[in-house]
Structure formats: C-alpha cells, structure tokens
Specification:
alpha/beta; Rossmann fold; five-stranded parallel beta sheet; elongated
Length: 234
C-alpha cells in the first residue's frame, strides 16, 4: 500500500512538474497575451449609443484593476454622454469613504455627470451583480455596454445575455504599456546612486513575468467560465 502511494505521488509530481515547465516555456511566447486578448474581444459589439454603460468593479479603492476600469468607463461615457452609467461593487453608500462611493467620485472627477451615475452595491460576484442590475433595468431590450477587465468580459457579457438582455456589447479595459525605450536604462548615465542596469533584454525583464501573470489570470478565468457553464449561468 505504501509503495502504491509513493508511486502515485511520483507520477503526480512528474505530471505537475511537466505542466509547470510548459507554463514557463509558454511565458516566453506571445500566447498568454493572445489568450487574454481573445477573452476581451470575443464579445458582441453594439454599433449605436448604449442606453447604459455598466462597469463591473473589482477590489477596493484605489486598486489598479478598478482604476483602469474607471478610466475606460469615463472614456466611453464622454463618447456616449446620454448614456446612464451603472457602477457595481459591494459597499456602503452611506459611507463617503467606501470603495463604491470613491468610485463614483473618481468618475465625477473624470467628467462624468453625477446625475447619470447609478450604483449597484449588493452583488458580491458576477452572477449576483448581473441579477441585481437586471432589477434596476426593467427593459431587457435596453442596450448595454459592459466595461470590465479583458479576461472578465466574455463571462460578464454571457451572464447578461443569459438573464435576457439581447442588445449588449463589451468594452475591454486594457491597460496601456510603457514604450520600450522608456524601460531601457541609460548605461552611460553615470549616476552614482542609481541601481546598476541589468540589461536591455525586455523579454526577460518584463514580458516573461507579465506573461506568467497572464497565465494565472487566464487559467483562473477558464475555471470560472467552466463553473458558470456547469451552473447554467452562461
């Protein structure tokens, strides 16, 4: 019995080791980027001004994911000034320092009309957020533009479609990278207190680690998509 368990453990170790080796190799390619890109673009596009711009929040405030989504929400709100804006995140609307209220403040700072901002503050996951937003919008033929992170967009749009919304599109909140030349140090700068430059290989210094992060994000989202399919939510 002990030998059998050791054999199973050995096989499991080899399989997991092989899997992580594949992930490391893939991080040197562009595949993780395109996997995330596909999740953020494989959604319908609406070719007319939406009735509602719906931003699905993530994390607290300030938070990198939320700030990028808020930036894009303000951008599309300026493009479609007649659309109402719904921001969704659990929080206390009576507390001016709660994350949801700080999100509203951020949009106002970025030029969004405060009278057009609606708040959904009870949904604690994508499915619940969609159900609560449906209660806010009685007409399921209303056109919605969903703003969220690229990896989260496909599942979000499908959730809205599943509960009956038929006129829906997505806007992926992609972050913008620095230009390569800004990431390459000046080897001749001569600054005595500067950290020594470790080389100009951006693929090793930045891209590899970003792609590893993309792999975690994308595979986690694939698990969520599979779970939502099994539950019949998308």
């Amino acid at each position: 019995m002990k030998q059998k368990l050791l054999k199973i453990l050995q096989i499991l170790t080899i399989v997991l080791g092989g899997f992580f080796l594949v992930l490391l190799i893939l991080a040197f390619t562009s595949l993780p980027f395109w996997m995330r890109y596909h999740l953020g673009t494989n959604v319908p596009v609406i070719n007319h001004p939406p009735d509602y711009i719906v931003m699905l929040g993530a994390g607290g405030m300030p938070d990198g994911r939320n700030m990028v989504r808020l930036y894009h929400t303000a951008f599309v709100s300026k493009k479609f000034p007649d659309a109402k804006v719904i921001i969704s995140l659990p929080g206390d609307t009576l507390d001016s320092l709660s994350s949801i209220m700080l999100m509203k403040k951020e949009l106002i700072i970025r030029g969004v009309n405060k009278n057009k901002i609606l708040i959904e503050n009870t949904g604690n996951n994508t499915r619940n957020e969609v159900l609560q937003i449906k209660k806010m919008i009685a007409d399921t033929t209303a056109s919605l533009l969903i703003v969220t992170s690229p990896e989260h967009l496909y599942r979000s749009v499908r959730c809205f479609q599943k509960v009956g919304f038929s006129n829906i599109g997505g806007h992926a909140a992609f972050e913008q990278s620095l230009d390569d030349e800004l990431l390459i140090g000046d080897m001749q700068s001569g600054e005595p207190d500067a950290i020594p430059e470790i080389g100009d290989n951006l693929n090793l210094r930045y891209t590899f680690w970003n792609h590893l992060q993309y792999e975690v994000i994308v595979f986690r989202e694939y698990v969520a998509i599979t779970y939502y399919r099994l539950k019949g939510w998308i």
